[in-house]
Design goal:
about 70 residues, mainly alpha, 2 helices
């Protein structure tokens, strides 16, 4: 045991934590913001952008659950 901490593994954990721990909620917040009416209306473009953000979040959740299920075998 030459090293106390595996730097490569630590870097991978930090990057994935930032992407999924902060990135996915930020994308969800952008989707919610896109749905907020401006001057009482929302355009089709903003609605489409919001749905795209929600789809990205749902895909991240599905991929995460699938990785947990496959990894547990």
């Amino acid at each position: 045991m030459d090293q106390l901490v595996d730097g490569e593994a630590l870097t991978k954990v930090i990057v994935l934590s930032l992407v999924f721990g902060a990135g996915v909620p930020a994308v969800f917040a952008l989707g919610v913001r896109a749905l907020a009416p401006v001057d009482g209306t929302t355009t089709a473009l903003r609605r489409s952008a919001a749905y795209l953000c929600f789809a990205v979040c749902a895909a991240a959740v599905v991929v995460g659950v699938a990785k947990l299920v496959v990894g547990s075998e």
